[in-house]
């Protein structure tokens, strides 16, 4: 085992030839093949990671795997490389690296962390509700898979919190589209969107508004009974809200002209207040 002083000297010795390999934002830093012993190479990669040089750290961890593919260090470096890419905001590469780890080591004790990195990498790419939500759905699917496979891990506990945020975000997208249709008088299309929120995202913060918008839309279509049902559900579950008061007043008018709904600012992406800890060491 190399001493701390020896490792530090080794890191300095190879720092200069590696320093020029970290250029090109968002791209992998391709290193020339220079044979190095696995301990020195891994320790240098970890040193770069600790210094916040995430791109170079990722490239060096990849180099450990390339030069010493059958060592225990390679398995460790594979996951640390995925983590480094994540910190560098190179989420696509982080996902690919974590997926490669799972393909080679599906039963490894660090597999939950690999699933966690994949889910986080999708989660960090979620955009506001005015944009396409394909990434948001991928984040939800990945978080759900982690929770199903490893429900008792600390990663799954965090995943469950994020699932609620992501579902709320997807419901916000449905609301945004539904309001768009309402403003243009496309009431049936609006109903479909608001019903999706009520049926599929009923535990989110958007449900009270969705029920009120359903009341508006049904009245505009002349379907008074359905409007009353939506308002009744709203009153039973959210009796003290402004949304119920508005729905009640509309139903009381028995289908008077429905006002153009007030525009609501689109919701932003879910709050990102969690940062993963470094990958657990693998013995």
Summarize the structure in words:
The model is unreliable at 1-28 and 256-260 (pLDDT under 50). The chain contains twelve helices and no strands. 66% of the residues lie in helices and 0% in strands. The protein has helices spanning 4-19, 38-50, 54-67, 72-87, 91-104, 111-123, 134-149, 154-183, 187-200, 207-221, 224-237, 242-252. The longest helix is centred in the middle third of the chain and has 30 residues, at 154-183. It has 283 residues and is mainly α.
Can you describe this structure in just a few lines?
With 283 residues, this protein is mostly helical. Helix content is 66%, strand content 0%.
Class by helix and strand content?
mainly alpha
- Quaternary organisation: single chain
Average pLDDT reading: 82
Note the beta-strand portion: under 5%
- How would you characterize the largest beta sheet? none
First-residue to last-residue Cα separation: 15 Å
Uncertain stretches of 5 or more adjacent residues: 1-28, 256-260
Strand tally? 0
The helix content is 55-70%
Number of DSSP helices?
12
**What would the principal axes of the Cα set say about the shape?**
elongated
Q: Any chance you could write out the topology, listing elements then pairs?
A:
Layout: H1 4-19, H2 38-50, H3 54-67, H4 72-87, H5 91-104, H6 111-123, H7 134-149, H8 154-183, H9 187-200, H10 207-221, H11 224-237, H12 242-252
Helix pairs in contact: 1-2, 2-3, 2-4, 3-4, 4-5, 4-6, 5-6, 6-7, 6-8, 7-8, 8-9, 8-10, 9-10, 10-11, 10-12, 11-12
Features:
single chain; 283 residues; elongated
């Amino acid at each position: 085992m190399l001493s701390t002083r020896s490792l530090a000297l080794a890191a300095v010795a190879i720092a200069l030839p590696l320093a020029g390999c970290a250029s090109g934002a968002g791209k992998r830093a391709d290193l020339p093949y220079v044979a190095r012993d696995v301990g020195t190479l891994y320790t240098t990669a970890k040193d770069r990671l600790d210094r916040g040089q995430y791109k170079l750290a990722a490239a060096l961890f990849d180099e450990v795997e390339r030069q010493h593919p059958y060592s225990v260090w390679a398995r460790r470096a594979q996951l640390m490389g995925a983590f480094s890419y994540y910190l560098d905001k190179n989420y696509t590469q982080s996902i690919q690296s974590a997926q490669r780890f799972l393909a080679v080591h599906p039963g490894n004790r660090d597999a939950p962390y690999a699933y966690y990195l994949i889910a986080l990498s999708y989660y960090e790419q979620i955009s506001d509700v005015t944009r396409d939500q394909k990434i948001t759905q991928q984040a939800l699917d990945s978080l759900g898979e982690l929770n199903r496979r490893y429900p008792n891990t600390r990663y799954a506990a965090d995943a469950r919190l994020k699932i609620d945020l992501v579902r709320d975000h997807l419901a916000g997208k449905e609301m945004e589209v539904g309001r768009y249709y309402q403003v243009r008088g496309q009431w049936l299309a609006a109903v479909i969107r608001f019903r999706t929120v009520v049926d599929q995202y009923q535990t989110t913060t958007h449900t009270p508004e969705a029920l009120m918008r359903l009341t508006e839309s049904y009245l505009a279509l002349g379907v008074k009974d359905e409007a009353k049902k939506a308002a009744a559900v709203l009153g039973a579950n959210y009796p003290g809200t402004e949304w119920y008061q508005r729905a009640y007043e509309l139903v009381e008018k028995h289908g008077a002209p429905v006002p153009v709904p007030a525009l609501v600012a689109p919701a932003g992406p879910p709050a990102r207040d969690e940062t993963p800890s470094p990958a657990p060491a693998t013995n």
